[in-house]
Design brief:
The structure is a homodimer of 255-residue chains.
Chain A lengths: L18 H8 L6 H10 L3 E4 L4 E3 L7 E7 L2 E6 L5 E7 L9 H4 L5 E4 L3 E7 H10 L1 H27 L2 H18 L7 E3 L4 H8 L3 H13 L3 E4 L2 E4 L2 H8 L14
Antiparallel strand pairs in A: 1-7, 2-6, 3-7, 4-5, 4-6, 8-10, 9-10
The first copy, chain A, binds a DNA duplex (30 and 30 nucleotides) through helix 8.
Chain lengths: 255, 255
DNA sequence: CGGCGAATTGACCCGCATCAACTATCGTGG
DNA sequence: CCACGATAGTTGATGCGGGTCAATTCGCCG
């Protein structure tokens, strides 16, 4: 599950909150110095959001998109009967609602699952930047298509995997995505979610998530406790989850 | 469930296979005559694919994207244990694998579920067209983000709805999407899928889909028989499905 | 030490899978 | 024109994965 990490950004000094986004993009393609400068110039300094605060409400008109700098965000859908579903988790370096650049409102809310820092970028600034640097535009487009690929992987999990494989698959995915931005080492990563959050991602109840976590712990595959995921047996966890990182498009290639 | 349909394309004559895509885009934003001409000029004449033929294999390198002109396509994932999952259905007017423009390969296969006609467009031609017409680029980007919104809706269904609501939701979604391109009237639409195809979309077995179809028929909500969906009680079906077309972004607005 | 959300565990139940048999439909060749 | 084979659809019997309900326990913070 270990990934070769591409070279980090070169000019961290002024706008360090853009660094993880650049790590994510440079994992997939080259980003020229001019493109990097353009990107850094349009992302505003981050703002702080406390855990459990809604960052964006469903259907609210939007003229900016938020880059997650620190913390965890969830794309949440509240249902008639009070149930909640999380359709994607965002980790630092994700342009969490970049899709609002074309959609102009969201079909779901964005919820801070932990304390977060978010750096906003005006849609008008994105228009200007990508008209000047079309390749940068394609990289941003790519990152929304990567989110869609993650949606598809979750769809497959929800449709065709049992609870243990589903949970294992999510933990494998986060391992890879966090490694790309330097927030996981080979043994695991911090994850300040509740079991109920995981249940809302996986289409399960928190009661059942609890039982499955115990099962995975007793099978010595992975431990989730005290806000930290420790992967004891990466190969075994991969096998249980039927996990392949192909859908995360980790290879560097002209886009 | 009836939608106000935006004005159709103006210059159908030469490349009618692009018409439904333009209907879909013009439902959401204006498309100038120049943008229309650029789009028509880069889409090649359609090719025929028989039912059950794989159109694109998972991970195959791609330098073109396919516009579905006639028929139904599915994005399919084949699993280790022989199960299949369909993560999206495509209707005519959908640029089915436009996401390969940035991804360069797909994390899933594209399968012709019925006899299809597909019009290909080279990625290099798309690059040129959208550098000249950035707004057209954003419209195409929008359409991949719309696919992602559909993924999220399916995710919610799979995670939080029971079999009857899940099936009802899919039938409601197809009604709206087909109406936009003129392939559904207020009473229903042709749908040449098997019950097994539906099961593969919904994360169910064909046996259970059969039972639920019977239930929906007996409750006089909707009938699916002989390759045709007849919606007897649109309001009732909507209510059962907890369906709202918000996630399909039907409103016209500058993108 | 008290309060409160999160985690944990047990008992019971139900929706959907599984397995199996049978029918309907349709294209194809004798 | 019918026999047939293949595929899709239909229905019943049975079992299990995960939901539901309820009661503790844990862990953190004031």
């Amino acid at each position: 599950m270990v990934i070769a990490i591409a070279d980090g950004p070169s000019q961290t000094g002024a706008t360090p909150w853009v660094d993880k986004l650049l790590m994510k993009l440079r994992q997939r393609d080259d980003v020229s110095a001019a493109e990097e400068a353009a990107l850094r110039s349009i992302v505003e300094p981050p703002q702080v959001y406390p855990a459990r605060r809604m960052v964006i409400e469903e259907n609210e008109p939007l003229d900016r998109s938020g880059l997650l700098v620190d913390g965890l965000l969830g794309r949440v859908k509240n249902m008639r009967d009070g149930q909640q579903h999380i359709s994607e988790l965002h980790v630092p370096g994700d342009f969490a609602d970049l899709h609002s650049f074309t959609l102009k409102r969201l079909d779901h809310g964005i919820l801070a699952l932990t304390d977060c820092r978010i750096a906003w970028t005006k849609h008008s600034a994105i228009v200007t930047a990508i008209e000047q640097f079309p390749h940068l535009g394609r990289l941003l487009w790519f990152s929304t298509n990567l989110d869609a690929a993650i949606h598809r992987a979750w769809t497959v999990s929800l449709g065709r995997r049992d609870a243990a494989a589903r949970l294992a698959h999510l933990l494998c995915e986060l391992q890879v995505r966090l490694e790309v931005v330097g927030l996981a080492d080979a043994t695991g990563y911090p994850l300040a979610l509740t079991q109920n959050d995981l249940a809302n991602c996986l289409g399960l109840t928190s009661v059942h998530v609890n039982r499955v976590l115990r099962e995975l712990r007793e099978r010595r595959l992975v431990t989730f406790r005290g806000g930290h995921v420790t992967i004891a047996d990466p190969a075994g966890l991969n096998a249980l989850a039927d996990f392949s990182p192909d859908y995360l498009f980790l290879e560097k290639r002209p886009r």
